[in-house]
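Reproducibility note. Readers wishing to regenerate the assembly model reported in the main text can use the exact inputs given here. Chain order matters: entities are listed in the order in which they were concatenated for prediction.
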Amino acid sequence: MRTGTNPVPALLRGIGAYVLVALALAFFALPMLWLAAAPFDAHPGVTASLPDFTLANFKRLWNNPNAVDSLASSLILAVGSAVLVVGLSALAAYALSRVRIRGRDGLLYALLLLSSIVTGTAAMVPIFLLAAELNLVDSYLGVILVLTGGLLPAAIFILKDFMDTTPRSYEESARVFGASPLRVMWDVVVPVVRPGLATVGVWTIAQVWGNFLIPFLLLRSPDKSPAAVVMYTFYTEGGQPDLALISTFSLLYSLPVVLMFLFVSRRYGFRFHGGIKA
Amino acid sequence: MAATTSSADPSPAGPQGQETAEKGKRRQAREEPERDAAGLGRRRAAAFLAPALLLVALFLVLPAVWTLYLGATDYRLTGIPAIDPAFVGFDNLTKALGDDGFWRSLRLTLVFVLGSAVIGQAGLGFALAWWMRERTGRLRTTLEVLVMLAWILPSSVVAFLWIAFLDRDGGTLNELLRTPGAAWLLDHPMLSIVVYNIWRGSAFSMMLYSAALGNVPASHLETARLAGAGGLQQLRDVVFPRIRGHILTNLLLISLWTFNDFTPFLITAGGPDGATETLPVHIYKTALGSGELGYGAAISFLMLLINLVVAVIYLRLLGQRNKSGTAGKKSRTARRKARGSGQKEAA
Amino acid sequence: MADITLNRLAKVYPGGVRALHDLDLTVRDGEFFALLGPSGCGKSTLLRTIAGLEAASGGTVHIGDRDVTALQPGERDIAMVFQDYALFPHMTVEENIAYPLKVKKVGRAERAAKARRTAEELGLGPLVERRPGQLSGGQQQRAALARAMACRPRVFLFDEPLSNLDARMRLEARTFLKKLQRELGVTTVFVTHDQAEALAMADRLAVMESGELRQVGTPTEVFRRPASTFVASFIGSTPMNLVDGEVTAPGAVRVAGGELPLPDAAASLTEAGEKVVYGIRPEYLRWSDVPAEGAVAGTVSVVENLGSAQLVTLECDGGVSVQVVVSEDHEPEPGNRGWAVPRNDRALLYRDGDLVAEHGTTDATVSGPAEGPGNGVGDGPADDAEPVPS
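Running the prediction on these inputs yields the following C-alpha cells for the assembly.
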C-alpha cells in the first residue's frame, strides 16, 4: 500500500515534519536569544529572559573608548582586505580563466588546501616571525596583507568559476571593435561579473570581521585592536566578565555583518552562483 | 534513403539539428575556457597573476614551508633554543607519533569532524535543504535566516553565546530543561562542542545542497513518482546519484574546515582536562602554552599531511565519479540518458 | 568597401588538430557570402580567423589591398555579430551601439547622435534606453547589427546570425538581413549550418567539410549541381536521392531495379559497366500512379505531408528506397504501387563521390558575374522553375 493513498499516515507524516521543523527553529534560535535580550537588560545574567528594559548599556559602551575604536579598526581591516582581495583575485582569476597555464588546477587546489590549514593555528609562529622581519608588527597593513594572502586562493577559486561561465563573445566583440585587453576587462568583464565580485567582497568582509587570531597575534597596541579581540577585554573590576558590556558590544559588533547579509540576500539572493564546483 | 552511399553524415537542417549544433557549440566553448577572448597574451596574463601569487607565496606558502623547517628544530619560545635553535631532524615527528597526547587529540579531532561535520552538518544541512526545496513563505524564510545567522555571526560572539547558553547556573538550556546546575561543558564537553559546531556550520551544507537540489530536474522526480517510488526511493535512485559531486565537495570542505577549526577553544579552552583538545588546540597549547614551538610545528606538519590525505581521497572519488559517469550511463534508464551529457557540466 | 582574399590560409591548433587546410578563397566586394557546413567543419574557425580572433598558422588574409594577417581584430576595420549577439548586459541599447565609437574616441555627443541615428534606421528608436535583457530575440539581433553598423566597417562578419531566433522570427530576419545587406553594400561573410539559410540569403556560398572547401558557387549552382555526394546530401531540405547504379550500354544506367537514361550532363563521360551513384532530388522526380517508361518502381511506405505537396518514400524493387515530392494532384497511400520518373536534365552521376561532368562546369570560376554590390540579383534562383527549398 502506498502511503500517499492513505490519509492517516500522510497526516501523521505532515505533523511529524512540522514538529521537526519546530525543533530546528528552536535549535537555531535559542542560543541567539541572549544576544537579543541581554543588551537591553539592566542586570543581564547569562539567562535569556525578558529584559528589565534599559538602554543604559549602550550608553556605557559608547563611553568606553576601546569599544568604539575597535569597531573602526575592524572596519579598516575588513574594507582594506576586501579591496585587496577583490582586486587581486579578479585579475588573477581572469588570467587563469582565459590563458592556458599548465598545472593550473593542481596549483589552485594546492593553494586552496594550504589556505584552509595555514590560516589557522598551524602557521602562527612563522607568521609572527615573518611580520617581525618585514616590520609589519602592530600595523594594519600587516594584518591586511596576511589575511589577504590567506583568503586569496579561495577568492580566486570562486571568481574563476564566475569568469569561466561568462560568454567569451562579450570580450571578443569588444576586441573586434578595437578595445585593448585592459579596456575589455574594465568595460566588459568587471561589470558582467559584478555579482561574483560582490560575493567575494562580502565573503572577505565577513571573514576578516570575525577573525580573532591574526590581529590578536600582530596588533600590539590596544587602541588598534579590532572588535574580535577587544571583546575579551571586558571584565569587571572583580575579574568577572562584564556581561552588560559584552552582550551590548556583541550586538553592535554583529549588526554590520547581519545587515550586510540581509542586504546581499535581498539583492542577489544569497546562493551559490556556481561558485562552488562539484 | 537506405542506399545513400555518401560517407559523410550531414546533419539535418531541421530545427532539431540546429538545436543540437548550438548546444555542441556552447559545450565546446565551455570545454575551452582558456580561449583567450580578450587577446590577453601570456605576458599580460602573468602580470595579472603576479600580485596575487606574490602575496600568496609570501604570506601563505612561506609560513607553511617555515613551519616545516621549524618542525625539524627544537625551537622554543624561551631559553637558549629561542635564540639559537638546533636542527633535530625527525625527532619531533617521532616524539609526536609516540606521544599519547597527540593520538588522543587526533582521536578527538576525528570524533569532532565525523560527528559535527560529516554526520551533523551534512545531515542537518541536507534535511533543511530538502524541506525547503519547494517551500516558500514566512516559516521557511525565518528558518533560513536563523540558520544563516548562526553561520555569519563573528566567532567571538558565537563563543560567548554558547558559553551563556550552556552555563551551569542560569544558562538558557538549563532553564528550559529545568535542570539547574547541569554542567554541560564539564560533563559532556565533546557532545557540547559537536552540537555547537552543527549549529554553527549547517548553513553551508544547506546552501550547497539547495543549489544541488535545484539542479535535479523536476521531471526526474516525477518520472520516479510515476514509477511508484516512495520518498526514500526517490532520494536514493534519483537525487543522490545526481548530486553526488556536490555531496563530495561539501564533505571535503566542511571536513577540512572542522578539522582546522579553532573556535572550540574559545568555548572550552580544550578542557576539561584535555577532553576537547582537538589538534588545533593541541598545537596552540604545545606551541604557545608550553612554548615548544618546534614540536608544535611538527604536529602542524602531521596535521597538514592528514588534510592532504583527506583531500586526495576526495579528489579520487570525484575522478571516479567522472569516469563512471560516462561508462555507467548506458546502463541507466532512458530518462537519465536524455540529460546525461549536460550533467557533468552542470555539476 | 573591400573584398576579402584568403591565400593558402591554414589553422592548426596546439595539439595538432588541423582546423583549416590551406584555403584559397575570394569574397568579392559587396558580396553576401555564406560559409556553410556541418558542425566542426571549420567554418566558424575560418570566420574567426578572418576576424583576427584566431591567429592563422599559415597563409594570408587580405581585406582590400591590406594584408591583415598579423593585425589585431580591432585594426582590421571589420565588425562582427556573434551568435549570441554579445550585447553587453550592463549597457543600454544606445550605449551598446555607441561602444565601438567610444573605443575609437569619438566625442560623447557625436557618438550618442550616431547611435540614435543607427538605432532609428533599424527601427530601434523607442528602445534605445532599454537593456538587452528587456528586448526580444529579434530586437537584440537588430541592436547587435546596429552596433556593427555604427562604426562603418569595410567588412561584416556574422556568426550564425539566425540560430538564436525562433522559427518564425528566423524567416522574417532572413529577409530583413538580405535587404539590409543589399542596401548597405558592405562585403559580408556569414557562417551557418543551415543550408536553407545559406541558399536563401547568400549571393555565393562555400560548402565546407573537415577544414576544406568542398564547393564554392551561387546557391543555384550548388543546389543544382553539387560537386560531390557530400554537398549533394548536405544541400536541400529534403536530401537528394543518392542510389548505387551501374552504367549499362548504351546510354543507360541501372538504378534501384529500373533502367534509366543516363543524365544529359554525364552521357558522354561514362563507360559501360562502371559503378556510379545516381543522384536526383525528390523535387525532380515526377510521380506516376501507372507504369511509366524510364522510371523506378516501388511500393509506397511512408507519406509525409509538406503542406502543398507530399514527400513519398518509395521502397523500390532493388531493395533501396527513394523519396519523391508529389504534388497535391496525386494522393498515394502506403502500400500503393508507384513510379518515379527523373527529370533527365536535373539528374546527376557521381563517381567515387565526385560529380561526373565536363571539367570545370561545377566550379565557381565559370559563372557568377561579380560587378560590385547587388550582383546577386541575377544569380538568384529566379530563373529556376522549382522552388528553392526553405
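We highlight two features of this model. The mean pLDDT of chain A is 81. Chain A touches chain B through 102 residues (CB under 8 Å).
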